[in-house]
Design a protein that fits this description.
- The protein has 725 residues and is an alpha/beta fold.
- Strands 13-14-12-15-16-11-17 form a 7-stranded parallel sheet, with helices on one face. A 6-stranded parallel sheet has the order 3-2-6-7-1-8, sandwiched between helices. It has a two-stranded parallel sheet with strand order 4-5.
- Helix 2 crosses helix 3, helix 17 crosses helix 18 and helix 20 packs antiparallel against helix 21.
- The longest helix is centred in the middle third of the chain and has 22 residues.
Length: 725
Amino acid sequence: MTAATHSSLFPQVPDSADAVLDGLDPEQREVATALHGPVCVLAGAGTGKTRAITHRIAYGVRAGILQPASVLAVTFTNRAAGEMRGRLRQLGAGGVQARTFHSAALRQLQYFWPKVVGGELPRLLERKIQLVAEAAARCRIRLDRNELRDVTSEIEWAKVTQTVPADYPAAVAKSHRDAPRDPAEISQVYGMYEQLKRDRSVIDFEDVLLLTVGILQDRHDIADQIRRQYHHFVVDEYQDVSPLQQRLLDLWLGDRDSLCVVGDASQTIYSFTGATPDHLLNFRTRHPDATMVKLVRDYRSTPQVVHLANGLLSQARGRAAEHRLELISQREAGPEPAYTEYADEPAEAEGIARRIRDLIAAGVPAGEIAVLYRINAQSEVYEQALADAGVPYQLRGAERFFDRPEVREAGVALRGAARAGGNDSLLDDAEGLPAQVRAVLSTKGWTTEPPAGSGAVRDRWESLAALVRLAEDYVRVKPEATLADLVAELDERAAAQHAPTVQGVTLASLHSAKGLEWDAVFLVGLTEGMMPITYAKTDEQVEEERRLLYVGVTRARLHLSLSWALSRSPGGRASRRPTRFLNGMRPGSAAPGARAAAGGAGGIDRGSGGRRKRRGPVLCRVCGKTLTDAGEMKLMRCEDCPSDMDEALYERLREWRSEQAKELGQPAYCVFTDKTLMAIAEAVPGSEGELAGISGVGGRKLERFGVDVLTICAGQEVGGEDEED
C-alpha cells in the first residue's frame, strides 16, 4: 500500500513541464526544480519523498533539461523500483531507468563481461544457503537450520562491507558485531564457499556488485562509456547504502556531481546487512555546495500518530538522532493510539483478530489493515487467530503479483479472449469490460463470493479478484476501453511491477513493512526482549530497535494499536514488561529517568486474563536450551531433540482434524497446525487445564474442539466407546 493508492489509478498525464509541478508543496517543489549540482533531500516518513523525486525527474525530462536515457534512478527493492517506474510513466517520463542497485549492476555486467573477460557471464546463484551448507560440511562444521541462515547472512555482510574471508574475524571485532558462531569458523566456511563458487563457475548477488566495481576500477574505457550514457543519478533510501554500493555509485559518477540523494537517518533499520546512514549524514561534508531540502509535512498520518512518532524519536540518542526530523501532520485529527495489555500471546492474537473483524465490519477494507511484528516466527499465532475469525490475510514476502502462476494464467486467458473478440462464446452474454473480465476469469477460479477459510485456494481467488477490481477501476476512467486495452495496460504494469491491491489483512515483520502504509496498523508483541530484541546489546543496536518501532508507528494513517502480552502461554507467569520505548507515552508510564507513575497503566485496555504459572525463559524439556523459535516453543523442545510423541495418537488426531476441516470447509491448519497436534501428542493432556496450557490451543479452540481432543487422548472414539473395552 502506497500513497498512490488513494489517488486515481489512471491519472491524466500532465500536459506540460509546469503542470508536473502542480500539487507539490513548497519544499517538494524546491526538490523538483533543483536540477543542477548535488542535492540532498532529508525526507521524513509520509512526507512524499517518492512523489518529490519522481516529479523532479519528470520535470527535468519534460522541460528538456534531462534526457530520459541519461537518468539512472536506483533504490533497494524491486517493489520500490517498480513503483518509481509506474509513477514516471504516469508523469510522461517513460524511458528513465529506475532499478535496484543489483539489477543496474547486473545489466552492465552482462553487457561488458564478454568484452572484458570473454565468454558468457557465470551463472547467477539464486539461493546461496545450499552452497553455504555444503561449504560448512566440507569444513566439518555442523550448522543447524537457524545457524545456517545466520552464517549465510554473515557472508553477505562481509561481502557488502568488502571484507575477505581472512579478514572477517578482525572486522567482526572492530565493528562489535555479535557473530552467530566462532568468527574463525565462519571465516573458514566463507572461504570454502568462495572456493566452491569458483570451482562451479557461479556468482552470487554480492558478486554482481563486486565484479562491476572491479571492472569499472580496472577498465577506465568502460567506466567512461557508462558515464557517457548516464549523466544524472538519483538514489532513494540513501540511508540504507552499504560501503560497496557507495563505491559503485562513486564509480558511476566519476568526477561529476549531478547527484540527488533522498533519505531519513531515523529510518536506518538494516545495519545488520551492512547499511549505514553515514553517507547520508556526511553528504554535506563531501559536497559542501550541495542543495539541502527537508521534507517534514506528513501527509500520511494523523496528528495523534505523528505525535507518538515524534515522541519516540525525542528519546533517541546517537548521531542519527541528532539529525531527526520533527514531523508535522497535514491531516485532520483522528483517534488516539490504543494501548492494550493481554495475559498471554494467544489472548493477544485473538483480541487483535476481534478488533480487525470490527474494523472490517465498520468499513475498513481488509487490504488496508496490517499486523506487524518483530520476527517472522510471531506470525503463526496471528494466522491461526485470523483464520478462526474468518478474516482473510496475506503474508508479506510472497512472490510479486505479476509473477504469481494464477496471474500469469489469467493474463494468457484475457489475451486469448481479446484476440478472439466476438468469436469467443464466453463473452456472448457479457456486456461491458468488467463483465467480460469476470466471464474469462470464472474459468480460472474466480467466483462472485470468496472461498471459505484461507490458504492457497483463497490466495488464488484474491489474486483474480484484484484483476476484476482493476478492470472496474479502469473502465470508470476509460468508459470506451476494450479487453485489448486492458490487456495492454496489464502488460505495462507487469513490466513496471505496478501491482493492484490484493484484499486481505497483511501479516509482516517490521523490517518488511518499510516503505508501505495502511489505514490501520497493529503493532504486536511489544515487550522487553522482543522490542528491543534480546540480542540488541550495544547502545547503537538498541537505538536501531527504537528506529524500527518508529518505522512501524509511521506505517499507520489513521488507526494505530500497540499491544503486548504478559506471558507467552496461557497460565504462564506475568513476568514480561512492555517495551521501554513507550515509557512516558503509554498511559500510566513514566518517562525515562523519572519515577514510575502510581496507579498502574491508566488508559491501557486489558485483554482477557488467565492463571499465571512460572517465570523465566522457555527451556527445552530435553536438553535445557533456551528456545526462541515459535514452533520449538510450541513443542517445548528443540527441533533436533528426540521426541517422545505418541505416533499412533498423532495419526488419530490428524485423521480427526481432516474430518473437522472438511465439515468446516477450511484448510486443516485452521483447526490445529501440525506443530500443535505434535505438542498434544507429546503432552497427552488429561484435562482442559492441561490442554489449554499447550500453545496454539486458545479459548475458542478449547471450547470448540476440547472435548473431542481429550476424548482422543484418552484412547476413546469421538462419540463412541473406549477402544480398550
